[in-house]
Amino acid sequence: MSDNPIKIMIKSKLLSSITQTLRGIGKRMTERIWRLGTGTRLFFLTIFYSGESFKRFHLTLREIYFTGVMSLLIIVVSAFFVGMVLALQGYNTLQKYGSSEAIGVLVALSLVRELGPVVTALLFAGRAGTAITAEIGLMKTTEQLSAMEMMAVNPIARVVAPRFWAGVISMPILATLFSMVGILGGYIVAVPLIGVDDGAFWSQMQANVDFRADIINGVIKSLVFGVACTMIALFEGFDAPPTAEGVSRATTRTVVISSLAVLALDFVLTSFMLVI
Amino acid sequence: MNPNIVEIDHLSFGYKGRLLHKGINMVFPRGKVVAIMGGSGSGKTTLLRLIGGQIKPSAGEVRVDGEVVHQQDRDGIYRLRRKMGMLFQHGALFTDLSVFDNVAFPMRELTDLPESMIRDLVLMKLNAVGLRGAYNFTPTELSGGMARRVALARAVALDPNIIMYDEPFAGLDPISMGVICDLIRSLNDALGATSIIVSHDVKETFLIADYVYFVANGEVAAEGTPHDLIQSSLPFVHQFVHGEKDGPVPFHYPAANYQSELLNQAPVK
Ligand SMILES: Nc1ncnc2c1ncn2[C@@H]1O[C@H](COP(=O)(O)OP(=O)(O)O)[C@@H](O)[C@H]1O
Ligand SMILES: [Mg+2]
Asked: What is the pTM of this model?
């Protein structure tokens, strides 16, 4: 190994480009961790200042109307199509093994355990999550939050907490509705259209869907997704730079981060639930 | 009793190391309308936020009713803020609430008044600003001048001792401007409050203010009654009051020599 000058030069260039890359990664990481910290802090403050949201439940109820009821249509329509597609695909495979009556179980389990909570959360992030971020961001931009502070009213207690609980309450209800409408969609394709036996469809479903292992676990999932999606939307709005551009970027981030969080959390929760 | 409800004492404050205020002294006597004037970006809004305790000074202090604002905990600051009403530059009305609910907001949040009494109080406040008939409008249906009057009704909803106005005249038509002008004076006198007006509109401000502070370069550049200031021979005051474009406040932001910059071929960085 002879260290001629050219080799040394190449080495030092390589070294400096490596340190630069590492520094860039480090900077981004610190920023992410910082934001994660501020987000977590907002989460705990929200919990801490939640008393108002329950003492004056009409505040929360109003937000349930906005977040829940407005997502209703998109969720019902999507669920119907998802259920129909599940039945088509499921029948196609099951009939090869001569067990097409199991179609009811397949549709119901897929919906209750996975698709109901996950797809609902994804749609919720796109519909209600973005609306929350944009609304809070706009309230910040137009100094409404500042005005509230100056009136000695805590914006976390008055604005953030009711929206948080509304999201957490709406999500399991919407997910349950999704599963129910999805099963109806599957039924319509399987029984009247394809001609699977009516009784077999329902009785197999009844026999094989477990209340605790399937339904309760599905509800737990959607509760966790509700906390995650709503908190991300609230934080992005609260943290948005008070400009039009800042709010629009925050809205996009809400969808991206919520979707990733839902899919990652789904994996974690599913693995825990299958082990226990 | 201390004759001054708000006192600003050797106050310094800066964002990111650059000092915006460099040792400001001001007093706001009870019952008076006091104006803070200065160019855009001279830190007038920031001064109001310091009085309201939304930010902490880097040196010096603000005292409200004898209490040092930045030494209070959260409850203490909220207690002080209940003595204040603030009109934000763009009104800052809650866009998800009606005009009525906007004015009722501080009453519902901070008092235990029964709804029937809140109703009467809100209608009284709206009547005082001439907008009782618009009680069921949403903020988006209001013109700029109307929005500001509603915001004013909301700011005085709980009969504050101190009313702060951030640019109350900016962007209004002449009629609305006159209306707001009269309202500031009459509300101040009717409530026995103290008003702090932040503005750069000389004509309207001089019409209603009892005392005026001029801030420039982070310091109080001049102070006095409007009568004294109009006759002032201080160059800065003269420039501001008469709206001259060049003077002690230069038209040009500090820059490199113009000629050498034009001759220099290097791209501007
Ligand atoms: N949150 C902030 N962070 C950093 N700089 C700020 C912030 N708010 C205001 N500033 C800066 O402080 C200066 C004074 O602002 P402001 O008090 O709003 O002035 P004025 O109300 O007199 O026009 C401006 O140059 C502004 O850019
Ligand atoms: Mg300002």
From this structure: 0.86
